[in-house]
Amino acid sequence: MSEMARWLFLCCSLPCVAHKVAVVGAGINGGSAVHFLRQLTDDELVLYEAEREVGGRTYTQRFANVTVDVGGTAIYSKNRYMAGFAKSFGLQPSADDDLNSLIGIWDGQSMRTELNMDSMAMSALKLLFRYGLSPLRVIPVVREAVGHFDGIYDLQGAGQSFETPAELLRALRVFNLTQTSAYDFLAGLGVDDRFVRELVDGASRCNYNQPGTLNAFAELISLAGAGVGGHVFSLANGTQAVARGLARSASRQLLGERVTEVQESNGGYVVISEGKGGIRREQFDGVILATPLELTKIRLPASAKQLGRGREYQTTYTTFVHGMLNKTYFGLETSVAEIPSDIFTTESSTSPFSSYGVHKILADGSVVVKLFSRTQLTDEQLHALFPKVFEVYRYTWKAYPKLQPLPLEQWASFRLGRGLIYTSWLETSASAMEVAAIAGRNGALLMREALQAKTARTARSTRERKEFRGFARGSPRQVHNKPLLIEQAYDYGRVFKKATHLGPVQ
Ligand SMILES: *[C@@H]1O[C@H](CO)[C@@H](O)[C@H](O)[C@H]1NC(C)=O
Ligand SMILES: *[C@@H]1O[C@H](CO)[C@@H](O)[C@H](O)[C@H]1NC(C)=O
Ligand SMILES: *[C@@H]1O[C@H](CO)[C@@H](O)[C@H](O)[C@H]1NC(C)=O
Ligand SMILES: *[C@@H]1O[C@H](CO)[C@@H](O)[C@H](O)[C@H]1NC(C)=O
Prior knowledge:
Elements (H helix, E strand, L loop, with lengths): L2 H11 L6 E5 L3 H13 L3 E6 L10 E4 L2 E4 L5 E2 L3 H9 L13 E5 L4 E6 L3 H12 L2 H24 L7 H7 L10 H7 L4 H16 L7 H10 L6 E2 L6 H8 L4 E4 L2 E8 L2 E8 L2 E7 L1 E4 L3 H4 L16 E12 L17 E4 L9 E7 L5 E7 L5 H7 L2 E14 L13 E3 L2 E3 L10 H41 L10 H7 L1 H11 L4
Parallel strand pairs: 1-2, 1-13, 2-9, 6-15, 13-20
Antiparallel strand pairs: 3-4, 5-8, 6-7, 10-11, 11-12, 14-17, 14-18, 15-16, 16-17, 19-20
This protein binds 2-acetamido-2-deoxy-beta-D-glucopyranose (4 copies).
One 2-acetamido-2-deoxy-beta-D-glucopyranose binds next to loops.
């Protein structure tokens, strides 16, 4: 028998190997954790979701006979996980052929400029004319940050895990960017104020409903998402289908089951939840919390450490309108088809909405538009923009953290306890579906290590018990090293100490 086969045999003959893991939260984060953990283990994976369907902050609806994403929408072409999931689940990018590629900057009174994202040469000239050399200073920096961030795929592919978000971001050489505001960072680059107030604020208000007070890393990611240095797409059938595809890797999905508490118990954890069947308690070897603790208020064991603090969530009001657009609202002398499909706003804007995005122009000339705002849009405000409203759909989210720089001492750890992993803190740096997928994979890698360590502990204590019995009976002690193999892989230092302690009996 090869070492590996022998180890597998030994391992499978121990009672400890069939582990059970709970993953709390069936968004992209939890789904990614389940998906990647499934690739690493045959353990039983139980996915808890408080809502009655999986998706988390991906949420796809039919509105005005159009498929719309109420939550996470855009996938950046370099997002390897999201693009890969979509491909492997057979999900097609949406064909927005009927929409123009114009981005307008609106200050509530006038359209300050329009940029054609399809014709970069034209836009580049326009950008240079309007903003001087600023774009030339910013574009390489966006590309560089995205390039550094790309390093995560090789690291995770090689099985590298990270104990804290800061460790992960440092390995990618982007941590420092999270500790400075976009305003300060761009001023340091000599970027002109107008560029910041219009394009930078515009992009971050569209992505995060916040201005450039957010950290520079989030800002650079949001500029990438605005099409600077790559292309962006959405899915024809919406992004919630990605979460659904990921959740299929779970052994069991417990929907409508709200986790209220995680307790330490028997070397593992008991997850307590409330659902249709009343209160439920189930024992697990490990738990991955893939939901922001600020929003879920799950009670954790007293031993849970470094939960993080000071992070708030931005409330975003999402409004979908199907109606006839007021052609003069934006002060443009053009047809509806020529009004920019995406309109960003400045922070000083008097506009009631933070961003405006057309989903579809229908045959009768009516439009389906998505608006983000920081307060609920009133019927009067909507009527000024759409004199004729056919249908409205409103949804309020705690959509993403307020992304301003947060001092490192307030950050959480990914590992709250030996087998208790918290993945959601990574979005303190930047919030996007891809970031959630990366956090989920890191959670899976940390969980595998925790389970291997648990196997090693159990093997050790089983052996110690056997050895103790053997000693008591006075029979020769059997010394076998095999279970040490896995320990060595896990933590050589500790194994070495233990092995010395156990030393063969003379
Ligand atoms: C809804 O859209 C489908 C195609 O996506 C079309 O065939 C159908 O006629 C539309 N229904 C209405 C009521 O517009
Ligand atoms: C999208 O959804 C429609 C029905 O809503 C379905 O017929 C189609 O197969 C789906 N396409 C993909 C790529 O998921
Ligand atoms: C990050 O900032 C620290 C302290 O200011 C500095 O020592 C370090 O070199 C910086 N790291 C990178 C990658 O820029
Ligand atoms: C259309 O928008 C313009 C500019 O805001 C406004 O003056 C006008 O009253 C609006 N039209 C309607 C029908 O609300």
